[in-house]
Each structure stands twice: as C-alpha cells, then as structure tokens.
UniProtKB/TrEMBL annotation:
Top-rank taxon, per record: Eukaryota
The TPR repeat ranges on this chain: 60-93
Name the UniProt record assigns to this protein: MYND-type domain-containing protein
Gene Ontology MF, one: zinc ion binding
Alphabetically ordered keywords of this record: Metal-binding, TPR repeat, Zinc, Zinc-finger
Alphabetized Gene3D superfamilies for the sequence: 6.10.140.2220, Tetratricopeptide repeat domain
PROSITE patterns in UniProt: TPR, ZF_MYND_2
Domain (MYND-type) ranges: 135-176
C-alpha cells in the first residue's frame, strides 16, 4: 500500500479542521464568548468547499450551529438565515436528523419573536416521524408525534415527557404566557 492511500484528501483534511474549529466555537458559545465563537465558526466555513458533495453534511451542521449562536445573541434574522441554509442543504442530502434539528431551530426563532403559530407549523412539518422535543437539552433525538405531548398553554411546544417540559419551563414560560395574555 503506498503512502498516498494512507493520507487523507485535501477535502477530508479541510473538513476535519473545520469540525475541530466548529467544536471550539460551540464550547465558546456555551461559555458565553459569543463573538469569539462567531469568529471560529466563520473560520471553519472558510475551509469548506460547498461545491464538494461530501462537505454538505458538515456545512449543514456548522450552519445550524452558527444559527444557534445568533439565536443566543438575540440576532434573530441572522439565526433564521443560517437555519434556513442548513435546512435547505439537509433536505438536498436527505439528512433527517439535521432537517429535524434545523426545523426545530427555526421554530425557536419564531417562538422568540412571539410567532407561536408559525413555530407550531414548523414543528408539525416533521409529523409524524421526525419531530424533536421542545426542551433544547433533551437528547432523545427524533421522535414520533405520538411520543410527544403538546404544551397546554400555548399549544405550540411539544415535549417528550413531563420532566422535559418542567426542565424547559423557565425558558418557555415567557413565550407561553405571552400567547395566553
């Protein structure tokens, strides 16, 4: 076996480096270092050639994470832009997990802007087989509609369990109460 078959291609190397940078960006975002995280995400995106089909899943993931960063920063228009890009490319490669995640994140933007009916419509696009719990820290992944309960207040958030709804209440209550008043 020659040494060229053991080394990775330039595309694979760039994707690997981009994923490393994106991982650091997610850590920075979690610590509240949003502007530094933004720089890391953009550096990661500069490494990826969008015309290479093998990079599409990586692009979808990074675009989705960049959207989450902007959502955390309250920059809703930018968040929506990146989530939409992620959803588009995820749809083209039929990545159901990323489609579901991007759609859920777009619904988060709509909820943050008190557009609860739009948020619910986005969530229901995945029915019945690829929906997500409304608790952003839930790790259950893709769920069926029958596995979820709808919030009794706003009727726009879906949860996999009472404990997930309870864990999410502090974040969700301002949107839920706004719709009820």
């Amino acid at each position: 076996m020659d040494s060229s078959s053991l080394s990775s291609s330039p595309d694979e190397s760039a994707i690997s480096e981009a994923m490393t940078l994106a991982g650091k960006a997610r850590q920075l975002d979690a610590r509240g270092s949003h502007y530094e995280a933004e720089r890391f995400f953009h550096r990661a995106l500069e490494l990826i050639d969008p015309s290479v089909p093998t990079s599409h899943a990586t692009l979808a993931s990074i675009w989705n994470s960049l959207g989450e960063l902007y959502l955390h920063m309250g920059r809703f228009d930018e968040a929506e832009q990146w989530f939409t890009k992620s959803l588009d490319i995820s749809g083209s490669i039929r990545d159901l997990k990323e489609i579901s995640t991007s759609r859920e994140n777009l619904a988060r933007v709509q909820r943050a802007q008190s557009e609860l009916l739009k948020a619910k419509a986005l969530k229901m696009m995945g029915a019945p087989d690829d929906m997500r719990c409304g608790n952003y820290s839930c790790c259950r992944g893709l769920l069926r509609t029958t596995d979820l309960c709808i919030c009794g207040g706003c009727k726009a958030a879906f949860y996999c369990s009472h404990s997930c709804q309870k864990d999410d209440y502090e974040r969700h209550k301002r949107y839920c109460q706004h719709e009820m008043s």
